[in-house]
Amino acid sequence: MKLSSFLSLARFGLSTIWFQKKSPILATVIVTDKCNLQCKHCAVNNLTGILYPYIQLRREMEQLYAMGIRILFFCGGETFLWQDGGKTLRDLVIAAKEIGFLLVNVVTNGSFPIDLPEADLILLSLDGNRELHNQIRGDTYDTILKNIRNASSDNICLYMAVNRINQGAIRAVCQTAKDTPHVRAVSFNFHTPYPGTEALALSREEKAACCSTITQMIREGAPVFNLKGAFPYLIDGSFPTPCHQCVVMENGRLSTCGRCIAIPGLCEKCGYFFVAEYTLLFSGNLRIIAEMLCTYLKYL
């Protein structure tokens, strides 16, 4: 991360904590809900199959920047499916940089070739060892690992959604992150039980066991892009929601925190680690502040 970007984000954080502000700093733009996979835990893919036009997405980015957003994520569906009149995902990332966003990140299922050095971070879904990942996402594990090895830049962060199926594979994914070229780190979430996927949600005891494994992997030197100080809050579901510093833009509709907020009762079952981390950060939790400084400067 550039020093100027770090200082700008630090100023926002200090101002938010000191004045208890609710201004957003991070936004996710949904470029499409179209996806080439049918993952067992996903309830938001292929609802419309629309690839939103470049001019619309550009306008949404400009709106978000004017709101003070400085960290941007592109998400789907599958982001690498997006195109419009010869423009591709790379054009969106370049446009976001030109607008002035300090960090521009992309979320992908990793089943397409990864040639996007302009992105600060590519969050790539890997949901276990070969057997468990393929059980959740179809026969894609080997393709994904091949695409990672052939990637054009070292800007990949593995992204695992932990559920009842793959909870025993945390160590395997950490080891893959540690051993695979072009991978900087691994980031975890617990499954958030969207309607139709409730059976995959972890119990409190299962979450505690998972956090214990992640903590042990951190001690063993695994490059984990999560904050241990947030684990007790994630286990108990006791972190404040929603996160007012994060928003989602989908087809012109702006949602605070994420798409979960529109579904009654789902916000209280949130499993997104970054939501816990950000809400605790901006409430002034000193341990989280210290851990985030060390982690973000190490992996961004």
Question: Could you describe the 3D structure shown?
Answer:
By secondary structure, this protein is an alpha/beta fold. The chain has a single domain (25-299), classed as TIM Barrel (Alpha-Beta Barrel). The protein is 38% helix and 16% strand. The protein has helices spanning 3-19, 54-66, 89-99, 130-137, 141-149, 170-179, 204-219, 231-236, 273-282, 286-299, and strands spanning 26-30, 71-75, 83-84, 87-88, 103-108, 121-125, 156-162, 183-190, 246-250, 253-256. α6 (170-179) links the parallel β7 and β8 (183-190). It is globular and about 45 Å long.
CA radius of gyration is: 18 Å
Total separate domains: 1
Cα end-to-end separation: 5 Å
Q: Which class in CATH terms?
A: Alpha Beta
Beta-strand portion reads 15-25%
Described by strand count, sense and barrel closure, the largest sheet is:
8 strands, mixed
CATH superfamily: Aldolase class I
List the secondary-structure elements in sequence, H or E.
HEHEEEHEEHHEHEHHEEHH
Annotated CATH topology = TIM Barrel
Helical content class: 25-40%
Give a summary of the structure in a few sentences.
This protein is of the alpha/beta class. It has ten helices and ten strands.
List the helices and strands and how they pair.
Blueprint: H1 3-19, E1 26-30, H2 54-66, E2 71-75, E3 83-84, E4 87-88, H3 89-99, E5 103-108, E6 121-125, H4 130-137, H5 141-149, E7 156-162, H6 170-179, E8 183-190, H7 204-219, H8 231-236, E9 246-250, E10 253-256, H9 273-282, H10 286-299
Parallel strand pairs: 1-2, 1-9, 2-5, 5-6, 6-7, 7-8
Antiparallel strand pairs: 3-4, 9-10
